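Quick check before the chapter quiz. The format below is the same one you will see on the exam, so make sure you can read both the input and the output lines.
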Amino acid sequence: MANDNDDFKTAVNRATGFDPDALRLARKDVRQKKFVSYDNVLGYDRYFILRSEKKDSLEAKDDEFKVPTKAKRNEIRNAFKKYAKSKKGNRVLATQFAEVVS
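Here is the expected output.
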């Protein structure tokens, strides 16, 4: 769990052997998925690094798809896109974690 840039950089450097290209690629992955994983490093089958910049950014909570009663078509579409995007990152992490466990 990386709480800031320094923690993230340190974790990636430990996992990749201080490879500057790997750090650049890890930052790109974290922007998209909110985590990065490496196989067979530091004695782990799969090593996950999760990025948490906000206090509750990784808090487990039950999100609901909420739309105001008099919402317009575009507002409903945008609310659904936002909801679906947040769930996609959680599914990717859960899938990779389940692969390691099974």
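If your answer matched, good. The radius of gyration is 17 Å.
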